[in-house]
Amino acid sequence: MPTDPRPIGVFDSGIGGLSVLKHLARLLPQETFVYLGDTARVPYGNKSAETVRTYSSQCAAFLLTHDVKMIVVACNTASALALDVLRSMVSVPVIGVIEPAAREAAERTRNGHIGVIGTRATIASDSYARSIERFSNGRKLDVHSRPCPLFVPLVEEGWLDSPATRLVAEEYLRPLIANGIDTLVLGCTHYPLLNTVLTAILPGVELIDCGECAAVDALRVLETGPQEPLHMPLIYLYVTDHTPAFTMLARQFLGMPVDEPVRVNVEHLVLPPDIR
Question: Is the pTM above the cut of 0.85?
Fold first, then answer.
């Protein structure tokens, strides 16, 4: 049983972070989770770094009102641009999705050619390439990055395995195939829902799910192993704006029934300069 009964906080700019929550709930079914989707201000990928840090701080401040014992930043853009700021301002562990996936990719690649796909902001930040280099242990690793901005709307439209999605994916992935990648980091939390299409286009290429890697990292930080699924995890869903498709997509992402999310306003919340 978990020794600390406080919940685990998770936030994302929208619904994609639910794929991270799914892995957390699978590995930690006895935990309680508080999830915040900042649906009123999605996407973060086209915002300035300063704005992303402000939004992320407000989301973290909301989660701290629930006395969370850990914050998982289930957003690649926020992980790239705001993680260090959050870690300097809160006293609980803060886990992002970039470092765990970068470590996994560096360990798994066989030929040293790693592909990374993500939003324009995540790719432009070069965070994955820098993180992969840190975990290379002196080995020469070539990182081939590619923004795939159309993947998110295709997922949210429910076109997970349509001919249109396959055509878009083939166009995006063609340069990565030409570079001979054997490992591909799915650098956006929406992308795992496209696994069927990606696997068909990239046979033999290892897909790295950043959300799954972050969940495994959470286990490590909590110093626990996978828990026995004695009951369904307790999940509280919050959003900053009600969107008609949220509940349907939440059930699709999580693979389980969920209650309607509660709408909240976080724009008035701030993190103090240092609450340690």
Answer: yes
